[in-house]
């Protein structure tokens, strides 16, 4: 899938794009206040504003709808930066295009539904407008990729992704758990796609925005979308997670934007040496793991011959505790050791189960 980077969208965007603006457009005064704060702030690359708000239950503020669109045009004219809004169906697209909105995004609640995504894609056929696709609410990489593919198949090539975290009812820290690994997998699957992080929806609290933003940049993400309101406490939606323009500028000052190491460019020799050392160590790790699985297979053969269960809880408990202790002595966290060992043990069980299944197959043929 060949797509254009944000800097090539023809909208004057830089390498790292900061998108700021309110969760919902509320009043002309709200936008006027924000424009006054954002004028002459070159770090703000794009203005966001929610116009149609998908709410969990009826009766909450669902956005101003079409009324807000001319106001956003005015913001664009004043700040001379592109304006983006969320669209969830073909009617939204039509209204947005009529009001020369520069960039559209598809929300998490829409990305989960391929019918809606396809409806939006079809309504954009033949239109040259950038579209950003938020991750679906559930941690389903294929749905996220699929939504981007639907846009691409409709002829759009100015595409980006927005990482807003994933619903996890067991998580007590985030509003939407980041699952950084999954976002990084999107990069592996679609290398051209840039990812904008949305720390407001991940944290759900304005105090968490700075740290989440920094982590996103540490992961090499390409921009930030931060909900900003002149008076967050009075906001008509998402009051808890919006920052004031002053807080936004402080956050932007305190975080550091990271550069990627270009694989094609000349890499300094000391970095090259360190990476060579890592390559070498990984080779040894793989050899050692392979040796371990070889012994696992021998244990499997023994179990098969003696009708023993594959999973041996007492032994596994001892192995796990002992290796965690050893790891801790070498400055490796319990959490890391546990997930590493569980992955190895899962594979051991799978291999031995396969050996047992083979026995059954053979028994069936006799
Ligand atoms: C290798 C065995 O089989 C399983 C795999 C283990 C491991 O990977 O260390 C430990 C216990 C068993 O659940 C065994 O029984 O010793």
TrEMBL record:
E.C. number(s) listed in UniProt: 5.4.99.5
Keyword annotations: Transferase
Molecular function per GO: chorismate mutase activity; transferase activity
Root EC class: isomerase
GO BP terms: chorismate metabolic process
Pfam families documented for this protein: CM_2, DAHP_synth_1
Protein name: chorismate mutase
Organism, as annotated: Marivirga aurantiaca
Taxonomic classification: Bacteria, Pseudomonadati, Bacteroidota, Cytophagia, Cytophagales
């Amino acid at each position: 899938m060949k797509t254009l980077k944000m800097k090539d969208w023809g909208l004057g965007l830089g390498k790292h794009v900061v998108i700021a603006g309110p969760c919902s457009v509320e009043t002309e005064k709200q936008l006027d206040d924000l424009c006054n704060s954002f004028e002459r702030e070159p770090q703000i690359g794009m203005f966001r504003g929610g116009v149609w708000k998908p709410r969990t239950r009826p009766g909450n503020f669902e956005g101003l709808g079409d009324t807000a669109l001319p106001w956003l045009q005015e913001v664009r004219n004043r700040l001379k930066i592109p304006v983006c809004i969320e669209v969830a169906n073909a009617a939204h697209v039509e209204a947005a295009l009529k009001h020369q909105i520069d960039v559209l995004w598809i929300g998490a609640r829409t990305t989960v539904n391929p019918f809606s995504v396809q409806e939006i894609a079809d309504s954009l056929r033949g239109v040259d407008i950038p579209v950003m696709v938020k991750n679906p609410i559930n941690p389903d990489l294929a749905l996220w990729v699929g939504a981007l593919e639907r846009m691409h198949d409709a002829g759009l090539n100015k595409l980006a992704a927005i990482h807003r975290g994933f619903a996890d009812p067991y998580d007590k820290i985030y509003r939407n758990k980041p699952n950084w690994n999954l976002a990084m997998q999107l990069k592996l699957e679609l290398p051209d796609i840039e990812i904008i992080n949305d720390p407001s929806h991940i944290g759900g609290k304005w105090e968490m925005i700075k740290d989440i933003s920094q982590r996103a940049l540490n992961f090499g993400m390409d921009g930030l979308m931060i909900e900003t309101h002149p008076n967050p406490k009075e906001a008509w939606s998402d009051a808890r997670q919006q920052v004031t323009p002053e807080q936004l500028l402080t956050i932007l000052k305190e975080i550091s934007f990271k550069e990627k190491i270009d694989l094609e460019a000349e890499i300094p020799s000391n970095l090259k040496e360190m990476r060579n050392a890592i390559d070498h160590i990984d080779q040894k790790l793989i050899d050692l793991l392979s040796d371990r699985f070889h012994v696992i297979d021998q244990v499997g053969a023994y179990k098969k011959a003696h009708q023993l269960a594959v999973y041996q809880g007492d032994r596994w408990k001892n192995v796990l505790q002992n290796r965690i202790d050893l790891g801790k002595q070498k400055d490796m966290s319990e959490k890391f050791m546990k997930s590493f060992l569980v992955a190895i043990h899962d594979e051991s069980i799978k291999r031995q189960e396969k050996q047992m299944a083979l026995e059954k197959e053979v028994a069936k043929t006799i």
